[in-house]
């Protein structure tokens, strides 16, 4: 399970990183809000642990920005702010749980397990992806839009699956090349643009409301609202 730890206090950061890795988590580290935004948006993290007292922004503002950019991973807030108003504000502004400092490691790990369990899809949900009226059956490798079966090639299905898993988030051409084609070096190939063009013709055809949008100079996004 991938976890992003956003904490600027070096001693706490080192202790938590070591403890979380020993507990089986793959841990990414950010010591400020700007770095956290970049990592959370570009990487697929299962859960975020966010300290509110960051050097460049308030942790609540960071959580709000991540939610606005489509990051849906559950957030456990860590904070020395102990008042009821602070805890309520944190939970109302995008946090999923709130733990005050100082805390016991055992409680932190228990809360993380509960968050992951609460946000894990059921076995039936895990085999399907749905974005608005678009549905992918991952077992049958079939896609439908408004009940109409889409005739996709294997590569088009993989590309559409990646877009669905990142619905609402802008994905760059290099991200797509890496995750869909396994190309991790800079290249001038137009394979992404060609496949997006063909995929758009199938997903957004027949008078459907367009789902796949081009973000000029950046990449693509699959609309989720």
Biggest sheet: strands side by side, in what order?
A: 2-1-3-4-5
Q: What's the total helix number? A: 9
User: How many domains?
Assistant: 2
Largest sheet, strands/sense/barrel:
5 strands, parallel
Report the β-strand fraction as a percent range.
15-25%
Instruction: Tell me the Rg in angstroms.
Output: 20 Å
Low-pLDDT segments: none
Strands, total number:
12
CATH topology of the largest domain: Rossmann fold
Element order: H for helix, E for strand = EHEHEHEHEHHEEEEHEHHEE
CATH superfamily of the largest domain: Response regulator
| Architecture per CATH nomenclature, i.e. the level-2 architecture of the largest domain | 3-Layer(aba) Sandwich
The first-to-last residue Cα distance is 28 Å
> Structural class of the helices, strands and pairings?
alpha/beta
Q: Helix coverage percent of residues?
A: 40-55%
What overall form do the CA principal axes indicate? elongated
Average pLDDT metric = 88
CATH domain class of the largest domain: Alpha Beta
């Amino acid at each position: 399970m991938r976890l992003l730890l956003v904490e600027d206090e070096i001693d706490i950061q080192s202790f938590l990183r070591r403890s979380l890795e020993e507990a089986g988590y793959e841990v990414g580290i950010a010591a400020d809000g700007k770095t956290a935004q970049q990592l959370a948006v570009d990487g697929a993290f299962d859960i975020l642990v966010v300290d509110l007292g960051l050097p460049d922004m308030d942790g609540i503002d960071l959580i709000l920005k991540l939610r606005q950019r489509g990051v849906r991973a559950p957030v456990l807030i860590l904070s020395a702010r102990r008042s009821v108003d602070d805890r309520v504000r944190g939970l109302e502004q995008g946090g999923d749980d709130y733990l005050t400092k100082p805390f016991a490691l055992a409680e932190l790990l228990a809360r993380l397990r509960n968050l992951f369990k609460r946000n894990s899809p059921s076995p039936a949900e895990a085999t399907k992806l749905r974005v608005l009226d678009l549905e992918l059956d991952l077992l049958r490798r079939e896609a439908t839009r408004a009940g109409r079966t889409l005739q996709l090639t294997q590569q088009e299905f993989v590309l559409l699956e990646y877009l669905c898993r990142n619905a609402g988030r802008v994905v760059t051409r290099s991200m797509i090349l890496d995750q869909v084609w396994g190309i991790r070096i800079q290249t001038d190939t137009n394979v992404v643009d060609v496949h997006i063009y063909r995929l758009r013709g199938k997903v957004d055809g027949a008078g459907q409301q367009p789902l796949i949008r081009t973000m000029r100079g950046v990449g693509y996004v699959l609309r989720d609202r």
